[in-house]
Specification:
The protein has 104 residues and is of the alpha+beta class. Helix content is 34%, strand content 38%.
Length: 104
């Protein structure tokens, strides 16, 4: 399905609504463990990438590079499941992309 020899990179971005959070300090306390768990379980780069000034919304993103497109897809699927099932987060939207080093 995918050409061998290519480098594959994928990313996923989540727009989430946080539960009972009333300050930016409480937001950091809610977001930090999610990012740490994603990083630990999937060995990806992950960060809060937007909406830092809002205390109940967050944009969380994760990305990885691999030699195998199927591996990238599997990891992104796992990250999405983890974030979607966190009880303290309401998942509003998800965007993801997969690119090859051979894409033009």
């Amino acid at each position: 399905m995918f050409d061998d020899g290519a480098m594959w990179f994928g990313w996923i971005e989540f727009d989430v609504l946080l539960g009972d959070v009333h300050s930016l300090k409480a937001k950091r306390a809610a977001v930090r463990p999610v990012l740490a768990e994603v990083r630990r379980r999937f060995e990806v780069s992950v960060a809060e990438t937007g909406q830092q000034d809002l205390h109940r919304r967050a944009s969380l993103s994760a990305g990885l590079v691999a030699a195998d497109a199927a591996h990238v897809i599997d990891v992104l699927d796992g990250v999405e499941r983890l974030v979607a099932y966190r009880p303290e987060l309401e998942l509003l939207s998800v965007r993801r992309r997969l690119h090859s080093s051979e894409d033009e």
